[in-house]
Amino acid sequence: MGYIYGTFPVFNGGEEGAIYQLNVATSTTRAITSGFTPQGELGKMTLGNDQMIYFSERNINYHIGKIDPTSGSISEIPIPGTVTSRMLGGITTDKTTGLIWLTSRVYDIKTDPENVRQGIISYNPATGEISEYLTASFSPDNPGDITVDNAGNIWFVELSGAGLIRFTPNTQEFSYYPAPLNEDININALTTDTDGNIWYTNTYYNNNAGAIGKFTPETGEYTQYSEGILNGPPSDIVIMNNGAIWFNEHSGQYLGTLDPDTGYIEEIAVNIPAEQSLFGQGDLCLSQTSSNIIWGCSAYAITSYEIIDQQ
């Protein structure tokens, strides 16, 4: 429909959070503040198969947010449970099943504060069913970003970034893949390629300059690509239709691209004033209507970058 949506992630009693809608055709934005509890820190977004936009509400308010792009209205889907503390993290859509997946961390402050569990939540937009899959069998850290591979496996990262976790829906089993102890790895954002490899941004590698990493499930191998990153570290990551890896950097002044066949990384100056650039710690997404436009958004602006040469 020609709109870009972004979350303004304010929480802990500060200014009210909002959803911002950009009309690409007119370059106008508007803030949507009604329809959700503003005290919940607003997280990432995903486009569902039903063409609704879903986002996570974390920290204070444990809901899945839902935007109807046709009407612009926002509603909330409560997550059932009796725990007194739940942290929601990343969110993604399984395009095959239509399920919305989120990462979750729960514990009961009052009755069982030591039993911290983490895992994932699935939401079925067609039926309204919510299922929670939690485990305490590995490091009970806050789970972060999440992605789905072509086989339907769910992958997510510990917030500490020390490893990847795979959840197999058919068997409801978790598998943990810790990063090598001799590697400086702090995984931030995730995505998958058509071969089933997990690509991620690494904010610690090479004296904190960062790297782009690849995890190969068949071998369990972590591979780091850092040569060419001069203004990092990387933040979010997307894969174009031609397989090229694109990422933003915390400085906000550069986009990076990686050729997965050669490992070659190129940084591209965006030539946007630092106070206006949202190619920093904000999230990236690909245009739904054009294969060569990358969008970035965060608290202050929405930014687009058109890739002229994809060869």
UniProtKB/TrEMBL annotation:
Coiled coil: none annotated. It comes from the Bacteria. InterPro entries: Vgb, WD40/YVTN_repeat-like_dom_sf. Signal peptide: none annotated. PANTHER family: VIRGINIAMYCIN B LYASE (PTHR40274). This is SMP-30/Gluconolactonase/LRE-like region domain-containing protein. It comes from Franconibacter pulveris.
